């Protein structure tokens, strides 16, 4: 690649056969191992800590690839209170695990329900697709795209991928729904899709807004640190007040002579019998 990005993946679902070669390539590259979904967290073929990309099966033998959308203006990044999540100029949204607290605010913020959590680990983190950030830095392309035998998913600059998407829609208007999913949703994404069916199910609601989500998440989550401090201060105050009242009650009982000289008479009786 000679261009410097920002990059994007374009997936044409009409060419996808659901072979999951992309899934296998992703697993091998990221050393994810076999699927190990957590009970109650979705089927084995859903996104998980061992499956950063997956294939969604729809009626009519439709196969739609799903992964992190790497939003142009990502809500998860704005929601991360420690700055562990970062957006690079090239396109990838990745997590710096030396900073991650495992707080899961990114789960709430993501409009595509992508992040997954290492529930079974003692020190759990959030996991998701990184758009093969390391491969991009070395001049390569994402493993999933490179592996696709049908060229259903291709890679290039976001500008190039948008141009190619619109070229296909215009060339075959009867084949495609006239929409590039990811072009404008939540301010645009680095994963673009074209299809012959509506792809609204890929988001948390069918019609996600075009307005970038950080404007909404930051308005709420910027209040989190003050709230935590306020609650912590309140709890400390309650603890101090209760402790003081208990001490005062003990002092008054001692002064009035109602407090027992030995708070544990049974212990003395046991000593006598020894």
Radius of gyration, taken over Cα atoms and rounded to an integer in Å: 28 Å
Helix content: 25-40%
What letter string, H or E per element, gives the SSE order? EHEEHEEHEEHHEHEHHH
Main beta sheet: strand number and arrangement? 3 strands, mixed
Q: Any guess at the CATH architecture of the largest domain?
A: 2-Layer Sandwich
Number of E-type strands? 9
Could you tell me the mean pLDDT? Answer: 84
Across the major sheet, the strand order is 8-1-9
Amino-to-carboxy terminus distance: 87 Å
In terms of structural class, how would the helical and strand content be classed? alpha+beta
- CATH fold name of the largest domain: Alpha-Beta Plaits
CATH class category of the largest domain: Alpha Beta
